[in-house]
């Protein structure tokens, strides 16, 4: 491993606007009257419901058990009664099933498992089982079950564990604050993951616009034999493939996973959740989320329980001073626009972002002028302009040949396009159509 | 001899030689074509819409002649056209019921809650962004993916709602696959009265986002009396197409949200602004 990280090709430098919330310490959100916990919070199979309407649950109690290996259980964010098995708008806009819990105000803890304090001597399999039982998914955004990443299939070996603390997405500061305030928890979580994978060390990659976080991590990292790697600021530095390249110099081939180049990537928030699950016996029921944007009175970072409605988080941030134009879950580059305030916080909700009327550009897209900016900035080195043409003509076969499936949907192309072409949106469409086509073929 | 004469002779000889070769080749490698295929192809509409399931009209004509398909499989041909093909081939034409497309939604812009959407003007792209810009998860997005898919221009987008002009619809079903919300169904042409709503949500939830949603009040079910004209499907009433009601049911039922409509009047826009 070299001391100097490599710079991946492409990328953009949007205004990061992190100053809105980067100096605000993480605050604990108060207990709300009700929580609507979205059932399916992970990539893979949905969990199976184990409670019914009218049941009482303790905080941390099981709501749904894993519905297979590619699935994780779901736990109650507080103690109370199950009011209903209802539907709420999901983060993609489609209504999804949720479990509504009416809080009893006691917030009584009833964790289904005991802490494992001797993690250094405990069986790695036991630690891995705990991570699964605690329902931990990748908290960086994708929601991939963590225990799956920690179980490489036969014939695949893992030699590098990379922890993603890049937080390259503008506006978001949740990971930054977490690394700064709970550095020991993060590093400890990395050490536990290192033990499960049977490695000697792990690397935490942090963009160098967070020197305080790097310093805080470095203070404790030595104790657990973990390295902290400072990375250049370049969006999308936190994307899995770009991060692996920067740190190890390995390129993940298109259609392959990080484990194919012997790497596992986890988010810093995931590492902190691992510490809580192992050392404190707490399932994954809360996370640090940045609630930010110019229209908010008091943007900041909050520790929110899963199932907290977005409307409540905006109240926490002091409400709004002006009518926002957009509400996004996640950051401005990859976040998903919402049309309802009823959406609730999930395990992978890293940010709630409001964008003001004068910040959002309502443009009409114009023809491609073939300037090639999108080609220059594409971190996956595909040809956005050409693929866009293919998609516009509904030639999804052509788009597939041009490797649209390699697109990581980072939005750098749309960001840099002077003709305001909806490139990223077209690629998302193409990917959906191609996948649907493959499914039809069987 | 002048150069001109030499050239004329050379080209003339070459031409004659090649002509003879072409003549021989045409005889030896002659492709036997069934003239019936060509004739049936002429009788078909020639729109190549694919509604029959074959790769265009020529392919379908071939299948009809080889009797792997029957002429009535063409959704576009009228009864007379089918009869003409059957007569020509000397087969018996089967009676078929003509079907037309129905967009089961009445939520145009004045009647529904919408959020601002500034992306690709195409339903299949819009649906990827927060499920489309409509308050109702099940409603027509109105960006016209179906209208674009229709080779006969039978679908009009009016105030953000796809409206089928029945007289132009030939029933090729191209629009059915284009709709990401699966709103379009094929119904018998003879049926005139439909419920223009496809949301399985509870009545109150639907009304919050759409003025013309079917709230399953069952007035139309009662008005049809003993006759089994309407079917109840959860929080939604649908027309029973086995026994479709006549247009008089709309008057008799007095649908409080005007979700129950006569198709021709709906296409004309007669229900606009009449919601209560």
List the helices and strands and how they pair.
The complex is a heterodimer of chains A (442) and B (276).
Chain A: E1 26-28, E2 34-38, E3 48-49, E4 56-57, E5 62-65, E6 74-75, E7 80-89, E8 95-103, H1 124-133, H2 146-149, E9 160-165, H3 174-181, H4 183-197, E10 203-207, H5 211-221, E11 227-231, H6 240-248, E12 263-267, H7 268-280, E13 286-292, E14 300-305, H8 310-316, E15 324-329, E16 336-337, E17 351-356, H9 373-377, H10 384-392, H11 396-401, H12 412-416, H13 423-441
Parallel strand pairs in A: 1-14, 9-10, 9-12, 10-11, 13-17
Antiparallel strand pairs in A: 2-8, 3-5, 4-7, 5-6, 7-8, 13-14, 15-16, 15-17
Helix pairs in contact in A: 1-4, 3-5, 4-5, 4-7, 10-13
Chain B: H1 3-28, H2 35-43, H3 56-65, H4 79-89, E1 99-103, H5 123-126, H6 145-149, E2 155-158, E3 161-164, H7 174-178, E4 184-188, E5 193-195, H8 203-209, H9 219-223, E6 230-233, E7 236-239, H10 248-253, E8 260-262, H11 263-268
Antiparallel strand pairs in B: 1-4, 2-3, 5-8, 6-7
Helix pairs in contact in B: 2-3
Explain this structure to me?
The complex is a heterodimer of chains A (442) and B (276). Chain A has helices at residues 124-133, 146-149, 174-181, 183-197, 211-221, 240-248, 268-280, 310-316, 373-377, 384-392, 396-401, 412-416, 423-441; strands at residues 26-28, 34-38, 48-49, 56-57, 62-65, 74-75, 80-89, 95-103, 160-165, 203-207, 227-231, 263-267, 286-292, 300-305, 324-329, 336-337, 351-356. With 442 residues, chain A is of the alpha/beta class. Among the domains of chain A are: 114-280, Rossmann fold (3-Layer(aba) Sandwich); 373-441, no CATH class. In chain A, the strands form four sheets. Chain A has a six-stranded mixed sheet with strand order 1-14-13-17-15-16. A four-stranded antiparallel sheet of chain A has the order 2-8-7-4, with no helix packed on it. The longest helix of chain A is centred in the C-terminal third of the chain and has 19 residues, at 423-441. With 276 residues, chain B is an alpha+beta fold. Chain B folds into two domains: 35-89, Electron transport complex subunit B, putative Fe-S cluster (3-methyladenine DNA Glycosylase II, Chain A, domain 3); 99-268, Alpha-Beta Plaits (2-Layer Sandwich), CATH 3.30.70.20. Helix content of chain B is 34%, strand content 12%. Chain B is built from eleven helices and eight strands. A two-stranded antiparallel sheet of chain B has the order 1-4. Chain B has a two-stranded antiparallel sheet with strand order 2-3. A two-stranded antiparallel sheet of chain B has the order 5-8. Chain B is elongated and about 100 Å long. The model of chain B has no long low-confidence stretch (mean pLDDT 87). Chain A binds chain B through residues 89, 92-95, 325, 336-339, 362-363, 422, 425-426, 428-429, 432-433, and chain B through 115-116, 118-120, 122, 124-125, 128-133, 135, 137.
């Amino acid at each position: 491993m070299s001391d100097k990280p490599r710079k991946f090709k492409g990328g953009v430098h949007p205004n990061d606007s992190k100053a809105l919330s980067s100096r605000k310490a993480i605050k604990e959100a108060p207990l709300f009257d009700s929580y609507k916990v979205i059932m399916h919070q992970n990539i893979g199979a949905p969990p199976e419901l184990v409670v019914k309407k009218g049941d009482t649950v303790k905080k941390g109690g099981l709501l749904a058990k894993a519905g297979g290996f590619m699935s994780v259980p779901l736990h109650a964010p507080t103690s109370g009664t199950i009011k209903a098995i209802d539907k709420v708008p999901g983060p993609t806009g489609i209504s999804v099933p949720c479990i509504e819990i009416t809080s009893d105000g006691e917030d009584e803890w009833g964790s289904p498992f005991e802490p494992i304090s001797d993690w250094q001597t405990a069986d790695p399999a036991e630690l891995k089982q705990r991570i699964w039982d605690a329902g931990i998914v990748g908290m960086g955004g994708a929601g991939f079950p963590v225990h799956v990443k920690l179980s490489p299939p036969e014939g695949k070996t893992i030699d590098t564990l990379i922890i993603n603390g890049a937080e390259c997405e503008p506006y978001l500061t949740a990971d930054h604050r977490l690394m700064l305030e709970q550095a020991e928890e993060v590093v400890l979580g990395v050490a536990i993951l290192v033990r499960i994978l049977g490695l000697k060390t792990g690397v935490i990659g942090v963009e160098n616009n967070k020197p305080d976080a790097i310093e805080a991590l470095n203070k404790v990292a030595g104790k657990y034999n973990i390295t902290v790697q400072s990375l250049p600021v370049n969006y999308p530095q936190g994307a899995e493939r770009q991060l692996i390249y920067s740190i190890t110099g390995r390129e993940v081939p298109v259609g392959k996973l990080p484990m194919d180049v012997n790497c596992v990537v986890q988010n810093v928030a995931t590492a902190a959740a691992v510490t809580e699950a192992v050392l404190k016996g707490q399932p994954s029921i809360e996370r640090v989320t940045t609630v930010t944007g110019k229209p908010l009175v008091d943007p900041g970072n909050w520790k929110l329980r899963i199932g907290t409605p977005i409307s409540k988080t905006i109240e926490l941030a002091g409400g709004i001073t002006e009518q926002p134009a957009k509400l996004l879950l996640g950051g401005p580059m990859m976040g998903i626009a919402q049309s309802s305030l009823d959406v609730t916080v999930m395990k992978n909700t890293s940010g709630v972002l409001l964008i003001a009327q004068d910040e959002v550009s309502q443009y009409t897209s114009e023809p491609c002028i073939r300037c090639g900016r999108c080609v220059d900035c594409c971190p996956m080195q595909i040809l956005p302009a050409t693929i866009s043409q293919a998609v516009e003509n509904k030639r999804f076969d052509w788009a597939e040949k041009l490797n649209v499936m390699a697109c990581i949907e980072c939005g750098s192309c749309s960001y840099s396009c002077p003709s305001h072409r909806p490139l990223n949106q077209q690629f998302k469409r193409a990917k959906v159509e191609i996948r649907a086509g493959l499914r039809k073929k069987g | 001899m002048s150069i001109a004469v030499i050239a004329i002779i050379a080209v003339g000889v070459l031409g004659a030689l090649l002509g003879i070769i072409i003549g021989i080749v045409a005889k030896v490698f002659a492709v036997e074509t069934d003239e019936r295929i060509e004739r049936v192809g002429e009788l078909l509409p020639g729109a190549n819409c694919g509604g029959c399931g074959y790769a265009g009209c020529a392919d379908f004509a071939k299948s009809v002649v080889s009797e792997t398909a029957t002429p009535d499989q063409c959704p576009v041909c009228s009864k007379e056209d089918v009869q003409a093909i059957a007569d020509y081939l000397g087969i018996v034409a089967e009676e078929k019921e003509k079907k037309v497309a129905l967009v089961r939604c009445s939520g145009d812009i004045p009647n529904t809650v919408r959020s601002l959407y500034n992306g690709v003007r195409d339903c299949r792209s819009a649906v990827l962004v927060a499920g489309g810009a409509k308050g109702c998860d099940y409603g027509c997005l109105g960006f016209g993916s179906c209208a674009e898919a229709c080779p006969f221009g039978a679908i009009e987008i009016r105030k953000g709602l796809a409206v089928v002009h029945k007289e132009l619809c030939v029933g090729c079903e191209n629009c059915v696959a284009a709709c990401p919300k699966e709103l379009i169904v094929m119904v018998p042409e003879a049926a005139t009265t439909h419920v223009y709503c496809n949301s399985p949500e509870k009545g109150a939830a639907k009304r919050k986002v759409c003025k013309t949603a079917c709230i399953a009040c069952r007035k139309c079910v009662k008005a049809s009396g003993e006759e089994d004209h309407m079917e109840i499907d959860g929080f939604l009433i649908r027309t029973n197409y086995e026994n479709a009601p006549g247009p008089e049911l709309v008057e008799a039922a007095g649908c409080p949200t005007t979700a129950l409509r006569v198709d021709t009047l709906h296409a004309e826009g007669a229900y606009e602004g009449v919601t209560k």
